[in-house]
Structure formats: structure tokens, C-alpha cells
């Protein structure tokens, strides 16, 4: 195989490593980009290079941005005494899209896991404790995933914060808006039933 | 919104334009790349830039490579008098993966379509006719998709080649290997039945 196909194959191989893409969709994506070279492929390469060179984790909360401290941590009006704790940046973005939370975030960078030997020091938990004091936090909202590891982590953080006299809450569990009971797992139904409200 | 998030959003927007990716998977892909910056993001940006600068269509067959004439058209041992006609480069790659065809290819770049005003001149059909004479082709294998436009195009090309005294064949239609009858459409079953063979 000559150089020409090797370059293409190499590109396809790398594209296929992205989550959500396999070899077949990587091939389709590469052909699509070659067809839209000026409009898509060149700008995409530039943007990748630019973000690769500039993206970094916020030193305060772990969000991804291009400055040492991210926009949310810089904006004074988001210092309302609330911190929302999430597992990773994707969760932070999901919360931001909903546009309801007005406070700041703290990205743990994973969950506690005995199996993978991930303890509080491996996550951003000590930093969270510092922030609670330093930023005069009154409420910490735990928005961790409803997995076993996520809930273990939530429990651990709640225990640590309780000793510091901070209100700790977690997202409500229940039926998703627009969700059909028939498609929900038993755990969700039982959680929604336990937390039922008068209407 | 400040510059930092704008750069990320811009990258996500462009990734979301790739076939097979939507906004959600584009976000996941971008976060994944930022985590694997040195191993994936930077090499991918380089590779995209390199391919964008060098990829071009083979002047002879329309395959994509980095030279004026592609490897398959250059290799003398693939000049066996057979040309396989495909709609686009993805189909050529699919044929090559099977590794069975030993001749050369001709990429039409689409199908004839009255609705979209695509006639023979818009495709690479005149070039195919030149090649049939110039490369002493004895057989043209039409490997076009089994869609209406694909079959119309196959018909048209077969007619043109017939006048030039070239054998024209098409891929066999029938039950895919490993395919279950229950999941096949009626057209395939009826084609497979009509083309049944003694065993």
C-alpha cells in the first residue's frame, strides 16, 4: 500500500477512536470532509489545533476553558453561595444548558471507586472542602450520577460537609418529564413513588 | 459568553456537522479529545490538515488519493481488462475490503437523476467510455446500488457499452451471507428466487 492510501487510512483510524464513531462511520465522515474541504475539513483542523493548544482545566472548579480560571468562576454574580458538584465537564455543560442553576460548579473528575483505587485525593474533593470555606458556601448541591459509585461518592461528600455545617442537597429522583412509566426501570419508579407529592 | 467557551462551542458545532454525529456525540467527542490531547487531538488535527492539503481525485477513475493518478490505476497488474463501476468512493473502498476484485475501478460520482438534472455529462460516464477503448477493457462490472436511480444508471451505461461490444455484467442480487429471510425485503426475496441455482 502506497503513501496516499496510508494517510487516508491513518486519518480514518484516528477518527474511529472517537466515542460514537466506528470504522464505518469514520470512513463516511472522512469522505464527507474531503468533499467539504474548504467549508469543513480545514476549519475543523484549525479549530482542533487551536483548542488543543488553549484548552485547560479551571484551577478553581475543573471546568474546561481557555483561561486559568473559567468564566463561571470569574463572574461575580454567580457567587451566590451555592456550589453544584458534578462528576465531569459533560455534566456541568448539561446543567448549564438547562439554564436553571445560578451558582458555581465543582467538577470532581470521576467518582470514588475502591476497585480502581480512586480515593478522595484522586478527585477534586479536598479542593471542594477548601472552596466551601473560602467562598462562604451555604449550600452544596450534589448532582452526581445515580450509579452505585456516584451515590457512594455523594454519601462520602455529604458526610464530610455535614461536619462543616453546610447544607447538602441532591437532585430529585423521579419520572423524567415526558417519560413513560412503561419504559422506566424499577428503581426510578420506586424512587418516584417514595418521593411522591400532594397535588 | 466569553471567548473560551466560544472556541469550544465552535469546535463542537463543526464536529456535529459530520455524518453520524449530532450535538450530543460531538460534545462527547470533543471532551474525549481534550482528555487525550497529545495522543489523539493534536495528531488528528495534523492528519486532517495534511489530508485536506493533499487529497485529490484520481484523474483516471475518480478514486481519492494523494497523487494525480491513484495506486490502483498505476499498478500494472490490475490492468486485467476489467473495470468495476461504482457510484462513489465509499463503494470502491467496500469492494477493495472484500479483496476479491482484481481489476480497476471507475467512480461515477453519483447516479443519473432526472429530478436533480444530473445527466451523463455530470457524472464520469464519458470518461468511462474513453477508458473502455483506451485500456482495452473486455468486461465492465456494474456495482451500482440497488436503488431506482442506481438501476437507471446501470441501464443507461449498459446500453452505451453494448453498442461498443463490451461485456457488461452486474453484481448478483440475492440473500446476503448470514442474512435471515425473515428480515429481508420482498424485492430481495423475489430477486433471489428468480436467480435460484441448482445445488
Automatic annotation (TrEMBL), chains A, B:
It holds the Pfam family RecR_HhH. Gene3D superfamilies: 3.40.1360.10, RecR Domain 1. Keywords: DNA damage, DNA recombination, DNA repair, Metal-binding, Zinc, Zinc-finger. GO terms for molecular function: DNA binding; zinc ion binding. Signal peptide: none annotated. The keyword Amino-acid biosynthesis does not apply. One of its GO terms (biological process) is DNA repair. InterPro entries: DNA_Rcmb_RecR, Rcmb_RecR, Rcmb_RecR_Znf, TOPRIM_dom, TOPRIM_RecR. Belongs to the RecR family. PANTHER family: RECOMBINATION PROTEIN RECR. This is Recombination protein RecR. It comes from Litoreibacter janthinus. The lineage of its organism: Bacteria, Pseudomonadati, Pseudomonadota, Alphaproteobacteria, Rhodobacterales.
Amino acid at each position: 500500500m502506497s503513501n496516499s492510501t496510508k494517510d487516508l487510512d491513518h486519518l480514518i483510524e484516528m477518527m474511529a477512536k472517537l466515542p460514537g464513531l466506528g470504522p464505518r462511520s469514520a470512513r463516511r465522515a472522512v469522505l464527507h470532509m474531503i468533499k467539504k474541504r474548504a467549508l469543513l475539513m480545514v476549519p475543523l483542523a484549525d479549530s482542533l489545533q487551536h483548542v488543543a493548544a488553549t484548552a485547560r482545566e479551571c484551577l478553581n472548579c475543573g471546568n474546561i476553558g481557555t483561561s486559568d480560571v473559567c468564566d463561571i468562576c470569574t463572574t461575580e454574580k454567580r457567587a451566590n453561595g451555592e456550589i453544584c458538584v458534578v462528576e465531569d465537564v459533560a455534566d456541568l455543560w448539561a446543567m448549564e444548558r438547562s439554564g436553571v442553576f445560578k451558582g458555581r460548579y465543582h467538577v470532581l473528575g470521576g467518582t470514588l471507586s475502591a476497585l480502581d483505587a480512586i480515593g478522595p485525593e484522586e478527585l477534586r474533593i479536598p479542593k471542594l472542602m477548601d472552596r466551601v470555606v473560602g467562598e462562604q458556601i451555604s449550600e452544596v448541591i450534589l448532582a452526581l450520577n445515580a450509579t452505585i459509585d456516584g451515590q457512594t461518592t455523594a454519601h462520602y461528600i455529604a458526610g464530610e460537609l455535614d461536619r462543616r455545617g453546610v447544607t447538602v442537597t441532591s437532585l430529585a429522583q423521579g419520572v423524567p418529564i415526558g417519560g413513560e412509566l412503561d419504559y422506566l426501570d424499577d428503581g426510578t419508579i420506586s424512587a418516584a413513588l417514595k418521593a411522591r407529592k400532594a397535588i
